[in-house]
Specification:
single chain; 118 residues; mainly beta; Thrombin, subunit H; six-stranded antiparallel beta barrel; 2 helices; 14% helix
Length: 118
């Protein structure tokens, strides 16, 4: 079956890790994103109501780009995977780099019909 695969798969957790913006230590990875929030998947539960300074490291062709932002945890619950927790965060003032990343991910994971000539 692998011989028939035409699209390379990417392991998103490898690329979409979330770090503490001050200590640069990993705190989890992105489960999903929107223009004003995100879901974090982590090994430890997150304090609901807490404000966290986070960092995304976006790989580029020449260098890694950092996106720093603050987010407030709205909810936290145990994931269906044992030892994992899902937490929902709200971003009050997402930076432009974050908004551009969300749009790039939306475009990347969308189906685009092929142009047909009439």
């Amino acid at each position: 079956m692998n011989a028939n695969r035409h699209i390379e798969r990417h392991q998103l957790p490898y690329y979409l890790n979330v770090f503490n913006a001050f200590t640069d230590k990993p705190i989890g990875y992105l489960g999903n994103v929107s223009l004003d929030g995100l879901m974090l998947i982590s090994q430890l539960p997150v304090l609901v109501g807490g404000c966290f300074d986070m960092r995304l490291k976006i790989p580029g062709t020449e260098a890694v780009r950092y996106i720093d932002f603050s987010a407030t945890c709205l909810w936290c619950r145990e994931d269906v995977t044992p030892g994992s927790f899902d937490s929902g965060f709200s971003l009050l003032a997402p930076p432009l780099d974050y908004l551009e990343m969300v749009e790039a991910l939306r475009h990347y994971f969308s189906f685009h019909p092929l142009a047909t000539s009439a």
